[in-house]
Amino acid sequence: MHIPVQKKIRLGFFIAFTVIIVASICSFLVTKTLLDNARWLNHTIEISKSLEVITKQLKDAESAVRGYSITGDTTFLRPNMQQRSIKIEDEYMMLRRITADNRQQQLHLDTLKKLLDKKYQQLKAGEAKATSRQKDTSAVQEGEKSMARIDRKVQDMLNIENAKLRQKSRLQSFFSAIWIPVIFISSLMAILIGIYSYVTLTREFRLQLHIESRLKSYQHDLQQNIKLLNKSNEELEQFAYVASHDLQEPLRKISTFSDRLQTKYGEHLPTEATDLILRMVGAVGRMRILINDLLLFSRAGRITPENIVKVDMTQLIQEVISDLEVSLQEKRAVVNIAPIPMIEGTPTSFHQLFQNIIANAIKFAHPERQLVINIRAEQENNECKIFVEDNGIGFDPTYAERIFLLFQRLHGMSEYSGTGIGLAICKKIVDSHHGHITALGTPGQGATFIITLPITQTLYNEEN
């Protein structure tokens, strides 16, 4: 199955865009994980640092009391227990703020607070006894137990932080493991798609250049052929004109000599000779009509932008009826004309068109009934359909296309006169006006000619 180049390019760009989106999401997740780990690491460090400061202050205070108790040196009691308690309280409040979003750590801090308060009371009592030089080993043991409980609570808090840190580290390791392959694969696919798109576009561009070159060549050939065709048409028109005049001259001589024979020797000629002369005169007349019709056919349908005007078709058809008045009276014909819109074209060609069609209806009128011709129009957008209906002898629908061909007749010369050129001239006129003509017929009932013409001659207007 052949896939168009445009679809291939769109598919390639869609895949590349999808790959970029996936790589961007992975990069975002990895970056977010790294930032979260960095924040949590700082969080853990801050908690560890604060807990370390608290335990250090407690141990320093405990060592100071013991040192003073042994040596009696008051420098061991500086800073005093109140100042150390303030530092411990500051660190404790910092821990409260840092772990405000962690319910478990808050509970540990509550326990730690109780242990610190108890330890503070023990240190205060130990400081007082050391000042009074009293020895109390049970207080020392109780202080060690209290400090051990504080150390365990501090270790519990550090374990919670380290567990979360390890969990985030595993998540970071997972994203880091997939990030490098994803970036590598996406980059490779993007490069391959870029190369494919470049090759495809280059091939398409070259094909486009080739097509444009061929089109220019065809246009040049077409223009040359049009020039040759126009020249050939001009030569044919000149030939038809000259031939018609050259053929008319021998016919005139034959007609003249035939008339002289009949005038001078008509009484002395035998009956058979007279009949031959009459046949010759009839053939000459038919030949003259045929030549004139051919000349009309060669000239029919000539249209140029300068000759195009808006034609009042209703008035034009009435003029045609007036020209055929005698023939219509002979058939006692009735012609009904409905309003027809104005149409752009050449009045002379339209006049000849409808004169031929109406004359055709008169010629083929039914001998047993009065001839009725109805002419009406239907307009749709820029087209106008003109219907010419008659109740004449009609014709077999099989010959609907044949009747518009040159020299085509459905009846013999003895039945109806004519050369078979009239409807061919009609078709040529309609074609030159970018329309079309069709015919519908029923034997014994009549015929309908449908002429479709554009309201405005757009093509010629653009050329003009």
What does this structure look like?
The radius of gyration is 58 Å and the shape is rod-shaped. It is α+β, with helices and mostly antiparallel strands. The strands form two sheets. Strands 2-4-5-7-6 form a five-stranded mixed beta sheet, with helices on one face. 70% of the residues lie in helices and 9% in strands. The protein folds into two domains: 5-203; 301-463, Heat Shock Protein 90, CATH 3.30.565. Strand 6 (436-442) and strand 7 form a beta hairpin. The model has no long low-confidence stretch (mean pLDDT 77). The chain has helices at 5-71, 81-98, 103-131, 137-265, 271-299, 313-323, 325-330, 347-363, 422-432, 458-463, and strands at residues 309-311, 334-337, 343-345, 372-380, 383-390, 436-442, 446-454. It is built from ten helices and seven strands. Helix 8 runs antiparallel to helix 9.
Specify the structural class.
alpha+beta
**Overall pLDDT:** 77
As an assembly, this protein is single chain
Question: Largest sheet, described in full?
Answer: 5 strands, mixed
Percent strand equals: 5-15%
| Major β-sheet strand ordering | 2-4-5-7-6
For the record, the count of structural domains works out to 2
Order of helices and strands: HHHHHEHHEEHEEHEEH
How much helicity do the residues have? 55-70%
Globular, elongated, flat, extended or rod-shaped: what is the shape? rod-shaped
Q: How many helix segments?
A: 10
Distance between the termini: 47 Å
Rg result = 58 Å
InterPro entries: CHASE3, HATPase_C_sf, HATPase_dom, His_kinase_dom, HisK_dim/P_dom, HisK_dim/P_sf, Sensor_kinase/Photoreceptor, Sig_transdc_His_kin-like_C
Protein name: histidine kinase
Keywords: Kinase, Membrane, Phosphoprotein, Transferase, Transmembrane, Transmembrane helix
Transmembrane segments: 12-31, 174-199
